[in-house]
Specification:
It contains 9 helices and 11 strands. With about 250 residues, the protein is of the alpha+beta class. It has a 3-stranded mixed β-sheet with strand order 7-9-8, with helices on one face. Strands 1-6 form a two-stranded antiparallel sheet. β8 and β9 form a beta hairpin. The longest helix has 16 residues. The relative contact order is 0.10. The N terminus is likely disordered.
Length: about 250
């Protein structure tokens, strides 16, 4: 009897998802895991606890997103010294939970792959988006319990949204945000807004960052955005407002 029990335990450990085949439609199998402290999208602190193995209800976006959470690292990654690590069950479930809380306009920005990396070359950076390849890397900092993962993902997915905007819409953003083209052998863009009308210093580095930061603040700190960059806030309301409405606002 003891040998049979040991064999069953061994099989369960080798094939942890075997029970998932019995989950009803609309649910997926989640193995038991230890969940650390973390912030929900609304800022609520979830205390560390043990999660039992169970069939979990598929969150919004699950069918499109769960297969994009990929192992290893992208084949081409600009930061060669960054090291990949394995996804934990807790992390994959947190990503799916965070994505489900985002508005439709961002959930639809499905990346070609979302990867788990250790530490960014920019130490405190929780995530990076590779715009041309439409890939996202999440670092340890994204899961340290103090960062809002939905807000991090909203920022990175906004980079992908910016790439997919048609030229007239993108040009309208540049005009509203006061990015001015400079003449030269390699034309570049310069932000004409003063620092006190800019949400973060990093958003001054490129239109990409300015757009992603603007969408992030529009969703997670709208009062600061209206006070700091009212024209950009109005532009988002006009051009992207419907797609960025949270479910509670619909």
């Amino acid at each position: 009897m003891a040998k049979l029990l040991a064999l069953i335990i061994c099989i369960a450990a080798t094939y942890p998802n075997v029970q998932g085949e019995n989950c009803p439609e609309g649910k997926h199998w989640v193995t038991s895991y230890q969940q650390g402290d973390y912030l929900r999208t609304d800022g609520t602190l979830v205390k560390a606890h043990r999660v039992s193995a169970h069939c979990r209800m598929n969150p919004r976006g699950y069918d499109s997103w769960h297969s994009q959470i990929k192992p290893g690292r992208p084949k081409v990654w600009k930061n060669e010294n960054e090291v990949s690590t394995s996804w934990s069950t807790s992390e994959t479930e947190r990503v799916l939970e965070a994505v489900s809380a985002l508005p439709d306009g961002l959930i639809e920005q499905i990346p070609a792959g979302i990867y788990r990396m250790r530490v960014s070359v920019d130490k405190a950076n929780p995530a990076t988006a590779n715009y041309p390849k439409k890939e996202i890397a999440l670092y340890d900092a994204a899961f340290d319990g103090t960062n809002n993962l939905a807000r991090i993902l909203a920022h990175e997915l906004s980079h992908l949204m910016f790439v997919r905007l048609d030229k007239p819409t993108r040009d309208a953003f540049l005009e509203a945000a006061r990015w001015v083209k400079l003449d030269g052998k390699r034309p570049s863009l310069l932000l004409q807004r003063p620092m006190n009308q800019t949400l973060t210093f990093h958003s001054r580095t490129s239109p990409h960052e300015d757009f992603a930061t603007s969408v992030e603040y529009y969703l997670f700190d709208p009062a600061k955005m209206r006070a700091t960059t009212p024209k950009v806030h109005s532009w988002i309301e006009k051009h992207l407002g419907d797609s960025l409405k949270k479910r509670s606002e619909k």
